[in-house]
Design goal:
The complex is a heterotrimer of chains A (about 100), B (about 500) and C (about 525). Chain A is mainly α and about 100 residues long. Chain A is about 40% helix and about 5% strand. Chain A has a two-stranded antiparallel ribbon with strand order 1-2. The longest helix of chain A has 18 residues, at about 20-40. In chain B, helix 8 packs across helix 11 and helix 16 crosses helix 17. Chain B is an alpha+beta fold and about 500 residues long. Classes of the chains: A mainly alpha (about 100), B alpha+beta (about 500), C alpha/beta (about 525). Chains A and C meet through helix 1, helix 2, helix 3 and strand 2 of A and helix 11, helix 12, helix 13, helix 14 and helix 16 of C. Strand 2 (about 90) of chain A pairs antiparallel with strand 8 of chain B, so a sheet runs across the interface.
């Protein structure tokens, strides 16, 4: 039985990089508890001998030749960036950068 | 972040005497394909930032990956060269984590289904010892973009720190090769680690899958080190050291980690499992990027790409098309050339193998080629701190030089002058001989003149020689050499002296 | 006729009719576009189907088509017929938000493949339509830009996530629209708006340029007021795309022909399966009385037309909703990681120091994502977590296999499957917002098709006691989309013939209050 405590929700929110208010944490914990119970049944009907399907239509070996294609217009792309400098995306300080 | 004070290091010899080191090495090689792993953006060196990107390599909403067949082929060839099994079926997986240099905030890689697995490679150390390193897997993945840290103390943007990101490199194909734990290397662990990386580098170059230059970042090594009291003990906690940019750094990093971990264990502390960063300047390592919650990557099969099932006939075709790999080639040349084991090792360690082979191909004997490359040229390279292969002389020119000696047109002493001329950029050996007039005098008349002059200067020599005392011939030859500025064939002079004296 | 009369005449036409008028030179692309743009202006204050309309841009596209036609160039069959596009589809030079504030103002530098095909066919784009944020929802109430109102009753939802496209069709703002369907987001809105919506076989239409929700479930598809119109549009946007590795080989063809063939209503030789677990015997709970009644009536009509109708059982379908609400959040949590304020879209800085990349990402996503999106990302992160993968995501993928097997077994016995598209007709705005699970139940009949990759269509088949539309869902085997159009057209014919005055259901829609006549 999973427990969606607010601590658990906070842990997952951190992993998913989403700031949540305390009110959101509480509400989500309750909602997710309900949903988790509803979806738990999958582990009951999915027995070990059933293989998993990750692609609905079976295709294999789809690839392309090593030939260059047109690239994006840098100005057009950087015009949409929150911040740009010297042809590059400006991002805030990255912690613990190597 | 650790807050315990760092114990001092234990002397390396002491550390390996009391602990058994275990290694694990991960090597990433950048493939030299024309386009990226999952999109057709071109890959060229030195392009303007963010000009080699498509919606896919920028991770824009809506973009989808499309697999580069040439990259798959290179990955298979690398696997075959490492004696791996090539998977009958494999998939890509998403490795999910947030970092500004990976535009999707996940890396498309391979998780529990690598394209190649369970292989091995023999690594030859300088003294001829062979260590077999077992390869756990080789898999395909994509490279990240490049962050450049800006600001802070140089006054930009009111001192605020930030980064500039270039995604040109994002998406370049990588193959990651992971070893199984390398056991039993003892005090030679650093050497084995460096030799392993060098061996892989040579294989990549031979296969032609990558330019494989560590200093350019085409080949990157992450070195894992752990210590245990003895080989019978369970494996210790390992650290992973990154930013190791040369073979020598691999050696130094392993050496340092062994010393450091020994000190930690001696102090009764536990080695912290962490990623560390190697410092070129002083050969030390320090804790690297702090990772939150032991980084749960939440791997799952990549739904946007379909499985790869390399056709067995294709794999066999690639296998039979593999070029002769470095180890096999070395053995073959060793036999063909007939060098002694020590001589061969010296040649390999000096990086002269290709050069000698090329000189032989251009028309000289292995022994002669070795004489020049390992002799005079090696001396010159060493004193000018240049790599042998970077000297401004070609293997063909070396062959030509020897041919001139063999033809009697120059002698060894002159040959060294000719060599100097070639290295100075005066042209081919033939050019230098002609320009500097270094050819051995072939005109007997000229020689006889010099001989007569020498004999005339020392009349009693002729009598002594006639009398069977051949010692003084050397003096005559010496005088003739001096007179001809060394451009006389000593053998011919000797013949003529004997004739003259009898006359 | 007067300008207003011309406008009403043109906006009430089917796409096939408009195409014929355009080809015959009876009307210009500019006239057609103008008529629709005027209609949009008139009803949008009430309906709010669109997030972005650029009148001048649309007219420019229309003028270009007219010029090409005048120059005698050979044009596509549908050239000049305008189309509305769900805002989850990336359009170069035109803002694309996927219904989210985190992409407010983002102007993409490239076109989705399907957009390239629409442009190549000379079909002017009327605008981008409203949707639940990142396609997560069944009512369009989760749009970051306010809900869309059902043209049948403005106090009710138009369905979701593609409520904007469906409402635009029902309100005669567009003759054709593009939607996307991950768990029913084309079919369920079609059902509650009395329009036609198709989820093609997975891989039939390229996903390149669709803002991804769940990669293994998403599929773009045609929305229209008639089955033939949907088939025509499917042929424009479908077909292999080398940029999408999951795209099927071969062209998208034969659908319009199949629809024309089916329009006779003759279903002799067709075996139809009623899926017990989708509102059939023993599974009626949750299905509105009139929905079940309309379904039974339609089944009678099918039998009357010569179809052989049997009940089939697909037991794993009872676990489909659960599997879906594990697979979708898991894939979505990964697909939505790219929205972090670094390269495009909204960037929000935390209120306090330090301002680091990590904290900006979290603040941006906290501010930019709505509650449903957050809910699913957290759930998906959980489902993929170390230690939970096997029980959740891993198990859901196994259920998927079972669902595929049930479909395969069913299609051995029958040619198509039928069910009601949705359990209810349009509910009131706000009615299910506080109960996520109740909202998810709207998709119970549509979800199995996405999990298996098989195609499905929703065709209007009745009205409830309040006069709100009901839809019938038809499912076919993978790659048998043509069969869907044939049977769909037959149902459309039979249902229409069965109605008073043999009038199409859409004709019953009440007039929408407009601020500008007409």
């Amino acid at each position: 039985m999973p427990t969606f405590s607010t601590d658990e929700v906070a842990r997952l929110a951190a992993l998913a990089r989403i700031d949540l208010t305390d009110a959101e944490l509480t509400r989500l914990a309750a909602e997710l508890e309900v949903i988790a119970h509803a979806v738990e049944k999958v582990s009951e009907i999915a027995s070990a001998d059933v293989p998993a399907t990750s692609h609905p239509i079976p295709l294999v070996n789809v690839w392309r030749e090593d030939v260059p294609v047109a690239t994006l217009d840098r100005d057009e792309v950087l015009a949409q960036a929150p911040a740009a400098e010297d042809g590059r995306f400006a991002v805030p300080q990255i912690l613990g950068e190597e | 972040m650790t807050t315990t004070p760092t114990p001092s290091l234990v002397e390396y010899e002491d550390a390996v005497a009391r602990f058994d080191p275990v290694l694990g090495i991960e090597v990433h090689v950048e493939l030299g394909t024309a386009t990226k792993m999952f999109d057709g953006a071109p890959v060229t060196f030195g392009a303007e930032p963010n000009t080699q990107v498509t919606p896919v390599s920028l991770g824009l909403p809506g973009a989808l990956p499309s697999l580069n067949r040439a990259a798959v082929e290179s990955a298979i060839r690398i696997g075959l060269a490492l004696n791996c099994e090539i998977a009958a079926s494999c998939r890509f997986a998403r490795k999910n984590y947030f970092y500004p240099d990976i535009p999707k905030n996940f890396q498309t890689s391979q998780y529990d289904e690598p394209i190649a697995h369970d292989g091995w490679i023999d690594v030859e150390l300088e003294d001829g010892t062979v260590v077999r390193v077992e390869i756990e897997r080789a898999h395909m993945e994509e490279d990240a973009g490049k962050n450049t840290h800006v600001g802070g103390h140089d006054g930009r943007l009111q001192g605020a720190e930030y980064s500039l990101v270039d995604y040109n490199r994002a998406g370049i194909p990588l193959v990651e090769i992971v070893t199984r734990p390398i056991l039993g290397t003892g005090e030679r662990a650093p050497e084995v680690a460096a030799a392993y990386v060098r061996t892989l580098r040579d294989i990549f170059r031979t296969l032609g899958v990558s330019e494989a230059r560590m200093e350019r970042g085409n080949v990157r090594a992450d070195v894992n080190v752990s210590l245990r009291p003895s080989p019978e003990s369970p494996l210790g906690t390992r650290t992973e050291t990154k930013n190791v940019n040369s073979f020598r750094s691999v050696d130094r990093a392993v050496r340092f980690e062994i010393s450091r971990q020994a000190a930690v264990l001696d102090a009764g502390l536990s080695v912290i499992q962490e990623t560390r960063h190697f410092h070129e300047t002083d050969g030390t390592t320090s804790p690297g990027r702090v990772k939150s919650d032991a980084e749960d990557y939440r791997y799952f099969p990549e739904p946007d790409l379909v499985p790869i099932e390399p056709d067995r006939a294709w794999v066999e075709e690639l296998r039979s098309g593999l070029p002769e790999l470095p180890a096999a080639r070395r053995r073959r040349l060793h036999t063909e050339w007939g060098f002694a084991d020590a001589e061969m090792r010296d040649v390999v360690n000096a990086g002269a193998l290709d050069l000698i082979e090329a000189s032989v191909a251009a028309g000289t004997t292995p022994a002669a080629a070795r004489k020049w490359w390992m002799g005079e040229l090696a001396r010159i390279a060493s004193s000018s701190e240049t790599a042998l292969e970077d000297l401004p002389i070609t293997p063909a020119q070396v062959a030509q030089l020897q041919q001139l000696v063999d033809a009697g047109r120059i002698n060894d002493k002159l040959a060294r002058q000719v060599l100097a001329g070639v290295l100075a950029g005066e042209g081919s050996p033939e050019d230098v001989v002609a320009a500097r007039g270094l050819e051995v005098v072939s005109d007997d008349g000229q020689l006889l003149e010099a001989i007569d002059a020498a004999l005339a200067a020392q009349p009693d020599i002729a009598e002594k020689i006639r009398g069977g005392n051949l010692g003084p011939i050397g003096a005559v030859i010496g005088a003739v050499m001096k007179a001809t500025r060394g451009q006389a064939d000593a053998g011919r002079v000797r013949e003529l002296v004997l004739e003259r004296v009898q006359a | 006729m007067s300008a207003t009369e011309l406008t009403s005449a043109l906006t009430r036409r089917t796409a096939a009719d408009l195409a014929a008028l355009l080809r015959a030179g009876d009307v210009s692309a500019v006239e057609v576009a103008t008529a629709h743009l005027d209609r949009i202006e008139a009803v949008e204050p009430a309906v709010h189907a669109f997030l972005h309309v650029d009148r001048e841009d649309t007219l420019a596209q229309a003028r270009a088509v007219d010029a090409e036609r005048a120059a005698g160039e050979e044009l596509h069959e549908l050239a000049g017929v305008p189309v509305a596009v769900k805002d989850v589809v990336v359009t170069r030079g035109t803002p694309t938000t996927a219904g989210s504030r985190i992409l407010e103002g983002w102007v993409p530098p490239y076109d989705a493949t399907l957009v390239t095909r629409l442009r190549a066919a000379g079909m002017p784009m009327l605008g981008k339509t409203n949707m639940d944020e990142f396609a997560m929802g069944s009512s369009t109430e989760h749009s970051g830009y306010g809900p869309t109102h059902n043209p049948w009753d403005l106090d009710r939802i138009p369905g979701g996530s593609g409520g904007g496209s469906a409402a635009a069709l029902a309100a005669f703002e567009a003759p054709l629209a593009i939607g996307t369907d991950t768990g029913g987001s084309i079919r369920q809105p079609a059902s509650v708006t009395g329009t036609v919506g198709v989820k093609p076989t997975y891989g039939s239409v390229s996903r390149y340029g669709l803002v991804a929700l769940a990669s293994s479930l998403d599929q773009a598809g045609p929305c229209a007021r008639t089955v033939l119109d949907a088939a025509l549009l499917h042929e424009v946007i479908g077909g292999h795309d080398p940029l999408d590795a999951t795209s099927l080989t071969g062209p998208a063809a034969g659908y319009a022909d199949a629809a024309r063939q089916g329009a006779s209503g003759d279903l002799r030789g067709v075996r139809v399966g009623v899926v017990r677990e989708l509102g059939g015997s023993g599974h009626e709970a949750g299905f509105q009385r009139e929905v079940s009644a309309a379904f039974r009536r339609t089944v009678e009509l099918l039998e009357g037309a010569g179809a052989e109708v049997v009940e089939v059982s697909c037991p794993s379908f009872t676990a489909a909703l659960a599997a879906y609400y594990l697979i979708l959040p898991a894939e979505a949590s990964s697909n939505l990681a790219k929205f972090d304020g670094m390269r495009f879209g909204l960037r929000v800085e935390p209120a306090e120091e330090p301002v680091t990349a990590e904290r900006v990402m979290a603040a941006t996503r906290g501010a930019g994502f709505g509650s449903e999106v957050k809910r699913r990302i957290i759930l998906g992160t959980y489902a993929l977590s170390a230690g939970y993968y096997d029980a959740y995501y891993g198990s859901a993928q196994k259920v998927r296999t079972l669902i595929q097997r049930d479909f395969a077994a069913a299609f051995d016995a029958v040619d198509v499957l039928v069910s009601p598209t949705a359990p209810t007709t349009a509910f009131k705005l706000g009615e299910k917002l506080d109960d996520p699970l109740a909202m998810y139940l709207n998709d119970v009949a549509t979800i199995p098709a996405n999990l298996a990759g098989v195609p499905g269509i929703s065709v209007p088949n009745g009205l409830d006691d309040a006069g709100l539309p009901i839809g019938l869902q038809i499912l076919a085997p993978a790659r048998a989309d043509a069969r869907l159009y044939r049977v769909g057209a037959a149902v459309e014919h039979l249902v229409t013939a069965d109605r008073p005055g043999s009038a199409p259901i859409i004709d019953s829609i009440p007039a929408i209050p407009t601020e500008v006549a007409p």
